[in-house]
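Memo subject: From amino acid sequence to discrete backbone structure tokens
Action wanted: Derive the backbone structure tokens from the amino acid sequence.
How to read it: Take the token row as a discrete description of the fold.
Attached in line: The record itself begins immediately under this heading.
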Amino acid sequence: MKFFWSIICIVGLPLLADAQPGGFAKKLKDKASQKINQRVDARVDKQLDKTLDNIEGINKDTVSRPASPVADNVKQEAVTGTGTFSSYDFIPGEKILYAEDFSQEAAGELPLHWNTNGSGEVVIPAGENSHWLRLHNPFMYLSAGKAILPENFTVEFDLLLQLKNNGWIYPSLSVGLLSTSREPAGGNNWLKTIDTYEAVRATLYPEENNNSRVLLESFVETKEYFKSDARQYAALQQFYGRPVHVAIQVQKARFRMWINAEKIFDIPRALACHYALNQLFFKVGQTNYAENQYGIYITNIRLATGVPDTRHKLLKEGRYTTTGILFTAGSAVIRPESTPVLKEIAGILQENENLRLRITGHTSSEGDDQYNLDLSARRAAAVKSALVSDWGIAANRLDTDGKGEKEPIADNQTKEGKSANRRVEFVKL
């Protein structure tokens, strides 16, 4: 009350002389009371938002932040912070064997060259702005990527689970690889069984109450070779309704799997290695939910091979090219799963204080030439900004450039070629 009358004295006294008798003091009192309440409400809301963010594990500084100043003549865009990906150690293969983002597929239809024993269609899910393949239960899906995989390779894809509890068990989702031996890859036989020659699959069992699980199995000639204990993955539930990134690394018999940077499996002898794997598949399990009551979607699939020798290429050869720095489509926003590649480059720079690099962005041929040129420059600038702000690299050690679509290294008529051309190049100065 003392505070209130102080405001009345400071604001009201100089005006009282010109005011009409009786009404002014009451209006001023009401107005001051209103302002005080507004200020108090604003402070309460601010503190409440902060508290709720902490409870939900949200850090606004790491979700989306503006890029640090890099070049005066380059338009800056937000760079996605590393967040929970700070300890992520997955490094994608450097040579792309298969890529699919469904951007060129007809909406409402199964993608070209995919096979299924049920139905599936390319859609744009609610809240998203890109193409996804919607999977239904209880069906098997064979991808169009039919290449003999080497001993060491990586698999990545984005997964969206739109699930709302109605008391029933959610459908499971399996992702795996199989060997078709001498039989045709993608044939109908593989829609019935996956374990004829060799296969490995990881199955997600989404649940409520933080009880989600992941199971890993492998087979050789119809016999079970390996079966893990069901791994609890409580974090899956918090991602219902928003995309997660799944990454798999196979090194001979070793199988590693990450979901949104959390390492789920690291099994040294999960695969028998009797046959060469050559077919990626997905399988949705049974559920009582109607199709309009749930959604399972996948996109941004990448199979790649080769382990990048970043250090040797930068320090000895003076040039390193990577497709492992990923951006949101059509923008210079760095996706958080790019963290391991950026971290490795930053480590080399930190260990070699005299090393200077030029960062050059490249795009595929999709879109306008001038837009691609500008986009590639902005992406290079975003990479520089991330190295400066997240890892403390001095800005004067990094130059940036953008080449757009002018210097392709692969065929822009194929999806794999386009994916390879969307790259970032580091050149020693």
